[in-house]
Structure prediction request, 81 residues.
Amino acid sequence: MRVSECYYLVMDYMEVGHELAAINYPRFPREREELNHFMAELREHLLIEFGQNRITVVWDDMMPFIDMMEHPNAEQHHKAN
Prediction:
């Protein structure tokens, strides 16, 4: 895993965020499906644990976006914090 600070810039708005990256490390190779499953699980965990409104996971061939309102437990957890 790599965690990097990043900035989201839109016109005159700036927000600090983080980028998490996972690679298929050659010394400990994993199947693509295993990595995809891990990142999807991490996305949902971070969405709930940190009360995020939205999280995007980027893969080579797709970029699924999950919103807090799309996750069945996220809204309840977000309101509780």
